Amino acid sequence: xxxxxxxxxxxxxxxxxxxxxxxxxxxxxxxxxxxxxxxxxxxxxxxxxxxxxxxxxxxxxxxxxxxxxxxxxxxxxxxxxxxxxxxxxxxxxxxxxxxxxxxxxxxxxxxxxxxxxxxxxxxxxxxxxxxxxxxxxxxxxxxxxxxxxxxxxxxxxxxxxxxxxxxxxxxxxxxxxxxxxxxxxxxxxxxxxxxxxx
Length: 198
Known about the structure:
Layout: E1 4-10, E2 14-21, E3 28-31, H1 35-48, E4 51-58, H2 65-83, E5 92-99, E6 102-109, E7 115-119, E8 126-127, E9 130-131, H3 133-146, E10 149-156, H4 160-178
Parallel strand pairs: 3-4, 7-10
Antiparallel strand pairs: 1-2, 2-4, 5-6, 6-10, 8-9
């Protein structure tokens, strides 16, 4: 079964189209109008091996908030749609990901129950022109709409760009592992409840 999906979302603040292929090769075509965010989404695609196309137009004359949050919503919805019953997946994964002086941990349960635990601090409110608080906003929207429990902890780091990037890469690598087919139970929903729909 092909694990791919498309989602379009249009509000008075944003217009977004997303397509994902969970069993891809990490190819991305990203355009949100927010340069740093595009770079982070490229990392998310590349290291999760989820092929991802994201086209977003938002009210950037106000700020980046609506564009970043709504993109997280749309990607999360597309992932949830692509996964369907979540049958045959590994479900759980975690990783400690290093980048130079920075170390960040991400742990995922593709449970159908959305929850975010965020233990990441930044020493500056901006990375270039990008608001660092929007990193959390993106992952909150992603977790809520993908139906995943997500814990992200930055153990240490000095460079805010590195801290943000390790968050995206760690989540990507955890997603990759959690969404891999389980060869020992390829047709089973990995839950004693028999359902991962919340």
